[in-house]
Protein: Phenylacetic acid degradation operon negative regulatory protein PaaX
Amino acid sequence: MSSLTPLNHLISRFQQQTPIRASSLIITLYGDAIEPHGGTVWLGSLIQLLEPMGINERLIRTSIFRLTKENWLTAEKVGRRSYYSLTGTGRRRFDKAFKRVYSANLPAWDGSWCLAMLSQLSADKRKQVREELEWQGFAALAPTLLASPRFDRGDVNATLLELGAQDDTIVFQTTAEEVLASQALRLQVRESWNLEVLAAQYSEFIQLFRPLWQSLREQPELDPQACFLARILLIHEYRKLLLRDPQLPDELLPGDWEGRAARQLCRNLYRLIVTAAEQWLESAMETADGPLPDAAESFHKRFGGL
Structure:
């Protein structure tokens, strides 16, 4: 265990999950740490990196096998060793899941909305479309009407096409309004997006990671392995929150929105530990060609610049 009490608490909390979500943590590891360094790593390195998290070798091998079957990972054999990397499909999934995590700031909102009317879809198809669009930040204003003030029209069209629902879904885009957020609209947003639940989850995140941030700031010298473990747990928990967060514009959020403080904490903690964590990764990870390649240029642009 680490000498940092807040980090030990986070590790114990992860280990107490039933069942331990090893596959999800491995995806976090690939997205945050392995992909920027070429995306391929020896299985033995994965085992070494995750063992302090309480994930034994058997569970790691089982999880890697499952992720390979689900087309997240692909293996390359070199001699008796197996090296794993994200598949093309896995990389696209990763990009979609992680692109919001490291972004600097959201663009200003112009007051426009995207509306998707699902009334012409069958019940089963409507359920599919609703689930996928909600994952992109949409919410129901009425039983068959979804809306989002933050949207990528290309992503919406691609989702509808992939689900075979493009011809039977009516999509509108509203024009910008001079008054971006009336009281009635803010009340509707709180109701449709269930912001109270998300705010409570952000508050829990802050309570979990603020003591770690404070403890690490007081260290005369940062321990590379502890920083790596802290970094993976930080991004793992923050990523899960962002998958539930519709990323609504500030105009539609409460003035004391906990998501802002959580993002600032995540950015500050990541910047504090990233250099030491990279040192641990370079010493622990091995590729088929030997040492770990340098991180891609995009890695250094995370959170507006590391």
Summary: Strands lie at 40-42, 73-78, 81-86, 114-117, 139-142, 145-148, 170-173.
